[in-house]
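Duplicate of #3305? Posting structure anyway:
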């Protein structure tokens, strides 16, 4: 019996020793302060596909923000690490990308994606796993508020204004500045962004006694020839055309419209904002076109950000880059405010964020909607260059 007891004791000591060694090698839980362990942040971004220029600009800007913070010692004494996943500008791929980020890469939060439909596809994943997600530029209202219940989605935030405001700004500019009394609308029928922005414009244009002459639809990524719908619009002879889409189709549509002799103003939302628009349509073609955007890159308030971005990536950022930068710094501030990377504490810190100084303007999150109150700008395309026209404050 003594030999058995002694052997049992030695065995137990050995097992305890192994357990202690194994415990010392485990990854710290969220909120742990081991400086050797980076804080992993997921990037669910459009790095290829139809809106790749948006995702690439955001990735660059997030990287810039993290590098700047890491050079200061990181946050909570730990370095930030961006784990980027390519959602290929596709809703199904977005679900797969964010699932990997959350379940395999074990990120503490997700930044992305840039477009509304692709962001919306990721909402159930981060909600089920209770991981906060910040969309830099997803403007559709239902991203942060469930339309079925009217309740805020607790884990979803954004760094941008929403489509109802953007559509209102566009309609008021059309009525007041363009003196438009009639307008035609062209919608990407598969895009939540396009449909939401169209609805907001139409509602506000009609409130101002404007008349919608007709609505036409296309499918982004599939349709390349838009002459049939443009011919119908030309016959209606509207004062202007509201085109809430992304730069690839916008460029083709405006180019084909001008070829048909349609010289009236075309206008849209922030999905126009990319230098590729000029390559697709041509500089002269885009004269007398306008769009609503988040920032003007020639705004002096963005000078430092633009300079830093250009020095690192040898290119000038667009508004999507500015919003990606703001989203990254919002998360940095939330981690610092929470003194933790625990997802619930980060969620609370984001929900209570007030007066955050972003390059795209001050951000105070409305806890009932998780939307920031921000101004918008109107940009005119003139001779191959986006040109600031005016700034519009939220009402």
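Output from current build:
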């Amino acid at each position: 019996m003594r030999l058995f007891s002694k052997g049992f004791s030695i065995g137990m000591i050995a097992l305890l020793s192994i357990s202690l060694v194994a415990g010392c090698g485990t990854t710290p839980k969220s909120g742990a302060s081991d400086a050797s362990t980076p804080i992993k942040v997921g990037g669910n971004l459009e790095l290829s596909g139809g809106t790749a220029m948006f995702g690439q600009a955001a990735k660059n800007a997030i990287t810039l923000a993290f590098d700047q913070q890491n050079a200061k010692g990181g946050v909570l004494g730990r370095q930030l690490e961006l784990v980027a996943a390519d959602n290929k500008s596709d809703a199904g791929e977005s679900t797969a990308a964010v699932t990997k980020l959350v379940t395999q890469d074990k990120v503490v939060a997700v930044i992305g994606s840039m477009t509304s439909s692709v962001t919306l596809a990721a909402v159930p994943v981060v909600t089920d796993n209770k991981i906060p997600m910040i969309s830099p530029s997803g403007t559709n209202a239902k991203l942060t508020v469930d339309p079925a219940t009217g309740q805020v989605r607790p884990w979803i935030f954004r760094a941008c204004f929403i489509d109802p405001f953007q559509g209102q700004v566009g309609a008021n500019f059309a009525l007041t500045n363009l003196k438009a009394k009639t307008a035609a609308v062209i919608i990407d029928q598969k895009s939540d962004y396009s449909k939401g922005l169209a609805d907001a414009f139409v509602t506000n244009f009609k409130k101002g006694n404007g008349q919608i002459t007709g609505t036409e639809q296309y499918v982004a990524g599939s349709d390349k020839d838009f002459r049939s719908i443009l011919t119908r619009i030309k016959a209606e002879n509207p004062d202007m055309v509201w085109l809430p889409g992304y730069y690839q189709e916008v460029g083709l549509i405006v180019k084909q419209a001008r070829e048909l002799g349609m010289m009236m103003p075309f206008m849209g939302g922030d999905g126009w904002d990319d230098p590729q628009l000029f390559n697709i349509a041509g500089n002269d073609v885009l004269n007398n076109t306008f769009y609503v955007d988040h920032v003007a890159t020639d705004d002096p308030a963005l000078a430092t950000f633009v300079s830093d971005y250009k020095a690192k990536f040898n290119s000038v950022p667009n508004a999507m880059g500015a919003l990606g930068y703001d989203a990254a710094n919002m998360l940095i501030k939330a981690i610092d405010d929470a003194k933790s990377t625990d997802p619930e504490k980060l969620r609370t810190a984001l929900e209570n964020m007030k007066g955050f100084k972003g390059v795209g303007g001050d951000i105070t999150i409305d806890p009932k909607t998780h939307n920031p109150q921000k101004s918008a700008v109107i940009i005119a395309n003139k001779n191959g260059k986006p040109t600031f026209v005016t700034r519009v404050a939220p009402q």
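Confirmed duplicate; merging threads. The CA atoms of residues 120 and 143 lie 6 Å apart. The longest helix spans residues 2-24.
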